[in-house]
Amino acid sequence: MAKSTDTSLNRRRFLKKAAAGAAGATASVSGISLRAQTSPAPTATTGQPPAGGRAGVGTPIPPPTDRQLARETGGAAPPSVPARTIVRPGSDLIVDALRSVGIRFVMANPGSSFEGLQESIINYGKNDMEFITALHEESGVAACHGYAKAEGRPMATLLHGVIGVQHAAMAVYNAYVDRTPILMIAGLDYDGPVAAHNATDMGVLLRGYTKWDAQPRTLDEAIGAIQRAYQIAVTPPTAPVLVTLTADIQKEETAGRSIAVPPFKPPQILAADYIATKRIAAALVGARNPRINVGRLRTSAGVRLAIELVELVGAQAGSSAGNGPMSFPMSHHLRGTGVEGLPVDFTLGLETGAGGEPGVAGHTGPTAVIQGPPLLATNFNVTGRGGLRTDSADSLTIEADAETSLPGLIEEVKTLLTADKRRLIADRGRKNEEAHAQQRTREWADAVEQARRGWNGSPVSLGRLHAELWPLIKDEDVCCSGPAGFTGGHAPRLFAMDKPYSYLGSQGAGGMGYGAPASVGAGLAAKQAGNGRIVVNIQTDGDLNYAPGVLWTMVHHRLPVLTVMHNNRAWHQELMFMQFMAGVRNRGTDRMSIGTTLKDPNIDYAKMAEAYGMYAEGPIANPEELAPAYKRAIQRVKRGEPALVDVVTQPR
Amino acid sequence: MVLALRRVRGLGALVLCLSATLVGAQAPAAGNRVAADAQVAGNPDSGKTVFMAHQCFGCHGNNGETGTRLLQEDGTFSPRLQTIDRFIAFIRAPRPGQAPPIGSSVSMPSYGVSSLPDERAADLFAYIRTFKPTEPPLKDIPLLDRMIKEGGKLKR
Fold this sequence. Notes:
The structure holds two protein chains of two kinds. Chain A is an alpha/beta fold. Chain A has helices at residues 11-23, 66-72, 90-100, 115-124, 137-151, 163-177, 219-234, 247-251, 274-286, 300-313, 402-416, 419-452, 462-467, 470-473, 490-494, 515-529, 541-544, 550-556, 572-584, 605-611, 626-638; strands spanning 28-29, 32-33, 105-108, 130-133, 156-159, 182-188, 212-214, 240-246, 290-294, 316-319, 346-350, 367-371, 395-399, 478-480, 534-540, 561-567, 615-620, 643-648.
């Protein structure tokens, strides 16, 4: 590798000189003059229009420079530079920092403000980091959202200065409200081709709904900021974080300088204190009929610990696995409401439910809840998350991480288990297991009955859409990635919800454009698992149309994702809202399809998928055609590629 | 049943009543469904146009079996669809003078006379009453029968 011959000339100064030189001449690419035709010529020294140039509202609008024009029109060529290469660019060390925190995937839509880092990830980081191509920054962030919910840890995304950050904003808000950690890196290039991509304070664009952001001034600071950002993201309350990296930091030469990435120190996450732990352990062991409500824990390790505690005391267990990830398995033999008629005399809540409700919501009598601190937001109504129960004299509320608290609690419980207690617990466990079996049979019968509704109807009922999938995936390792709120709620009822990633839950803040990109993240997690896990995404049509290019990402990166379209040709909830509104005003509902439906023309999602290179079938309105189409699609998915089946459905 | 619901233009209610009476005589077990049929004065074909234009299927499915069901699980119609009077009374709510609800809702919209005259409402009623269940009993759906047999017993 050639060695740098001129380390004294940094890139920024070089580009400034190059720009000034270029501005002095009339550039020509392919014989076309790039000089702005209607504006005064920029001055040779600044590239700005002379005084008295064409004015906008109060402020003169500078014409684009020749260099900007050339770049925008694809005519820019690399500047002529002396024979010179960078041996160890700063962005290589940023990659090392990403490695140090365990980042495996970085997803981005390209942007010149992070071209240095992108090159480092692709070349320098190629052995242990994969660059995932996004067609929209919102999709990139939503993919990180889905990945973190499936994996329990963040992946990273790169955002182009200002505009990429703005594109990403809604998805960041979703993730924030959903308490999901994401590592975001924004590029900032003061010498970039478009001045409007710069910001003095990049973080302000997302600050209302990110947990932390930094705009480091040096490479040393940047390395520290990456590690610090990751620490903060995964520390409860988990949430997205942002580090803004200047192009100078990414591109500076570090050869010969003693800059190193220190080992990453995982965060010290707060556990319940000793006294509280002892009190809870005593209450659990002393209770005649204890209940443990398991909300959304941070990682799969937390889920294993929760199972251990429940089994240790033979408690009945509540689960939010039907609402989101990282909770108690629904078919565990102790999950359920226990013996009918036998009152619960102590309830322990471990984190909030997927909907943010306290883990002991609705329970009277002695309770304790261990849950992480709430998210704070000054301008958004996210306060429903993490509210602590404090309304009972019998309640013990501990603001600490349940997952981190569980090992100590388990050990403390073990110290209290006498032989008599163990016999009582074994007996209680058997009764709770019988109760679980009965409850599960009832739940299953209800789920199947729900699926029967409109069985032979055309368009296809949502129940049948899901039921026909059941025999084809029941023996597979499945991550159900899309929210079930707009698909009739059949998936959590019919499909196995027994693994930490079985169901990834809702969008968080209800922002549309989430399901398909979150499935990309889930697909990356499945691919990473390498055990044949597949992703099933029941995808609403309105949601897909926000950024359908993500289908290409699935194909390009060979992700095992089955997309089944719930194609009801409308933003259906909004249609119903509008119908009700028209009724209140007695104006009739016959025009409420305006602005709420996706008809005339109907959208052909199979063709859309095929355009992105994906195997697809449909549209299917005859329910008899579902199973054969599913089989063919699932064969593809099990081979490690995505497929889509477009099902024309009943609205609800 | 379907024939009994169809109005033959020009012959009017007499034919309808006669048809309904005949149906009633043939199928006394149908009970109040027959009684409701006797009061139908709408045109189901026109009613279908109303059903589609107002997107009633949005909440009730194309056959009244999904979402907020019009057909009950036993195949009969819900109480509000037992007679046309009850149907119209329901869709007219909230009545004048009653404070309209505030905020979004996916509840049943109300339809005043100006937005859905009685005749159109009768057509709609007649069309809805043509709905027939498409959902066989569980035991007659091999897949669901298998699901019940397997899923309720095995850990999934």
